[in-house]
Amino acid sequence: MTVVRYERRGPVAVVTMNRPEYRNAQNSAMTYALDEAFYRAVADDDVKVIVLAGEGGHFSAGHDIGTPQRDAHLSFDRRAALWWDHVGKDGAESRFARESEVYLGMCRRWREIPKPMIAMVQGACIAGGLMLAWVCDLIVASEDAFFADPVVRMGIPGVEYFAHPWAMPPRIAKEFLFTGDRMPARRAYEIGMVNRVVPRDELEGQVLALAERIAAMPRMGLALAKKAVNQAEDLQGMHAGMDAVFGLHHLAHAHNAETSADSLAGMDPKSMKAAADGS
Ligand code: ZN
C-alpha cells in the first residue's frame, strides 16, 4: 500500500497521507513520499493549488515513534538539508543530522512551495502533524478536529518546526505548550490559526471549492503573494527564531539521552496517550 496518494482534480492536486491504521503517523518513507508528491504538483503546470489531506479519521498523530514501520534508523536520499547522513553516526550528531533533514529542513522546503497549499484537517493533528498543517498556507478544519503539541511531556520545548509563536499569539502558544492540551478547531479558528471550521461531512467539498476559487488566480500572482507573506513572517523573526529554538530542541534531546532511557525521555505512543488521558 502506498503511504501517500496523489490525485489530480482539475487544477487541484490532492496529496493524501495514507497510513490510517496508525492515524497517519509520519515515518521517513511517508516524508519522502510527500516530498515526491509535492515536487510532482509543483512541476505540473496544470496544477494551481495543492491540498494536503489525511486518510481516515485523523489528519496526523505526529511523527512515527512506535509503529512497526518506524524507519528512523534507515538512510534515504537526502534533499532538504545539505548535511551528512545520520546513519552510522552517534548521539547528538546523528539526531541533529536526521532532524535537520527530515523535520526542520523538509518543513521549510514545503513552506516555500510556490503554489498555494491547503491543509484539510479532521480528527487529530498532533505534534509532527501540526508541522504539516502549519507549512500549508491555509488550514480548513472540520468541527471534530483538534490540535496539540504535547512534547513538553518529553522535556522538549515543542516540535522541530517551531512555528508556535507565529501560528498563534505568544501567550496562547505558552499555554498550548505548558499544558499540552488539545485545542479544539473552534478555538484554533478564534485565535486565527485556522481559516475555516466546517462540518465533517462538508470538509472535502468546501476545501475543493476554496481550492478551485484560488485556482482561478494567475499562477505568478499566487506565487508572489505567498512569497510576500512568507517573507514578512521571516522579517518578524520566524526563520531565525526557528533556528534558535532548534538548538534548544536538541539540547533537550541530548539532556534526555544523558539522564533517561532515550532522547524522548522514555516516552512512547502508549505512555504519551496515558499521560494525555490522565490530565
Ligand atoms: Zn526532535
TrEMBL record:
InterPro entries: ClpP/crotonase-like_dom_sf, Enoyl-CoA_hydra/iso. SUPFAM superfamilies: ClpP/crotonase. It comes from the Bacteria. GO terms for molecular function: catalytic activity. Residues 260-279 are annotated as: Disordered. Belongs to the enoyl-CoA hydratase/isomerase family. This is Enoyl-CoA hydratase. It comes from Planotetraspora silvatica.
